[in-house]
Structure of Carboxypeptidase-like regulatory domain-containing protein:
Amino acid sequence: MTLLVRSFALFSLLLVGWPVAIMAQTSYTISGRVTDAATGEGIPFASIALKGLTNGATSDVDGHYVLRTKQLADSILVLSLGYQTRSFATASIANQTIDAQLVSAATKLQEVRVYAKGGDPAYRVLREAVRRRDQYNPAELSGYQYDSYTKIEGYINNFSKQRKKNRKPGPINRLLGKLPAITDENGLPAVPVFISETFSNFFSRNNPQKVKERVLKSQVTGVGVSDGGLISQLTGASFQQYNFYRNSVFLLQKDIPSPVGAQWETVYTFRLKDTVLVNEAVCYEIELTPKRPTDLAFTGTVWIDTLKMALAQVDVKVDKRANINFVDELHIEQSWETLESGVRFPVQTQVSIDTDQPAPRAPGALIRFFTTARNIVVNEPKDVGFYSPAIELADDYKVTDPTYWKSVRPDDLSPSEWRAMQVVDSVRNVPIIKVAGEIIKLGVLGYKPIDKLHIDVGPLLYSYANNDIEGNRFRLGLRTNTGFSKKWLLSGYLAYGTQDQTFKYGGTIEYILSRKPWTVIGARHTYDLERVGVSADNIGNNSIFAAYSRFGTIRRPYFQEENLVYFRRELGRGFTQTVAMRNRTFEPLFPFAFQPQIRDQDQSIRSNYRVTELISETRFAPDEIMLQNDNVRISAGAVRKPIFTLRYTLGIREALGGDFTYHQIAFNMKHSFRMGILGRSYYSLGAGIIPSTVPYPLLYTPLGNESIFYVGNAYNLMNYFEFIADRWATAQFEHNFGGLLFNRLPLLRQLKWREFVTAKVFVGSVSSANMAMIPATDSQGQTVEGFSSLNRTPYIEVGYGIDNIFKVLRVDAIHRLTYRDNVSRTGIPVTPFAIKVSGWLAF
């Protein structure tokens, strides 16, 4: 029985049970009419409450009210929006009549006019609730903390439905029908595949905004789950924050407008349905629906306290008409309570996500989230340093017993929940399900674990490539896991090309000095084939593009031997500092040469070099949550605040054979923000300078893209190594409308396509000194391949397109606006317009 049903039952019992109560003790009845003192007209939906008590009533459409109580106060309070609150004395008699006349408040005249125009009185209530939301928003407190219990359940369902024309179920449905199952609320079988329970301490503070979760205990059981460490962090309170006092509720990577947020009147239509008792408080029951059914918005009911004009309960849904992938229905129920301090706080939240069937004969899935907050303490924030790291696991977080969970669960589990916890173990041990779980892990992680040796093989993405230099390239990579050591992380690879018949190799040793704060030291040695303009520095974390760059024709290839030592430490929430020293060589396989600097005694033209670099990188991501998976840290992303990166590189001449002294400073910022119903924008800005004279492979090269695939951080109509710069600035922008237009077109609505626009700009130049370093011919008289640079006109490309095609595909139409007739030094003509595709799995 839900909290709302229990509240209605209690309220009904109070109304129909008076004859029995009268026999037991004295009851009091106060009745009357609430009217406007100036006009004498009845005031509808006015609140009448006994002073100092929780009993109350609400006037009807004509202003009449009846208040019944077993305990009498010395007076009643009468209040209504647009009127001054008044108190009236009561008498110690069983039945009395109190007519209340209220005087209009001058400051409310405008609201009365809007009410008359808007029609439904719900708008007056919502307008006042929105006006007071900062007063009740937990995010506005100086700080708060609570004990959190979170339970998550995952089921496979809808596999036993009767098919048309009595056809037999498909092979997957027949298999699921043979697995252990429970009976869901609709009387149909459901196979539990995941259940987790997490108990943690959650802390938050304002100014500066910081959050921290300390996971005390966690138990995770599910298909494909071997180590619950990462899962325990993902299923805790940090990812179950649903604050309806924010402008939007962030769920499934979507910003869903809140019914009490800034867009409440733009997005929703409201209707005042009734006044009911919720947690001993008289509340307005208000129904809400999106003004446009296809908009990403809630449908449901909110209950607002008549005295405080604050949220008391929320019961809302998002159905399949909204543009959310894989979701048939999303349902949120949330209860708010008033603490002893007077602060309102959400104490219980339930979220259900019922997925749609990806194909007519395929099963569906049901995911349930249940969270509670207890022992809430407000306005006692901790020191800023306390909140780092944002998520941490207690040393004994896996050591639990049944009595512990019984003591921290808010309520005993229902029989079906007990049955699900027992059945999920049986399901995960079915041979074919175990195989499916291993395939899922391999696809997500890219590594195949060999448990007996405590090593992982992979990543499989890099195992094979084919290009004009190496021919068929085969690669074998290994890394240790926590079974080997919880301090040491060893990894390495060996690659071989059938055409160049050369072995390439690499190895890394990393040692975790501390987990609190995260501190590591490491060393790496590699020898491999590289290409100018496509390197780890400008590719970033795009592993798919890095693997693709090994295929096809590799222009301007070179061998590089690299030695790197580094130290990385988290200095505070969001601050990460890395200091490294790198020594690397450049051994070209194409005509290349450079003129040595004037101060060099040997002025002969050279074709290879060695550099020694001292690197300092500072990264600030205040909104980012870092997760720890075994010995590796993973970013869960940032939602509201930008990420800043500042990198300084110092080339040191004659240190470890370094040939040059030079400086490089580069800055980058990434951010995304919501633009209301118009969708979400993503942008990045960058700038840098190299105020030194060095060979062009050491200058900045914007990442081009000659593939048919769209790459987010690349200039998609720029060729590889088309331009270089020693002074540069970049801007990349994308805005996704989230189906704002297509959702309104009847023929396209069912496709759930989403429209977007993009724009990318690159500005840069090369100094005359760096231009002069490239001679016309090398020492053997061969023509040296030079480079191209921009003039005063920036490079610009813009695009538009559709994503969410079949829920996974994206198509970009891109126009190159400048340098359309440019032919790079490699002789590759440019493409002024192209259509590129990519795959994006998103909700």
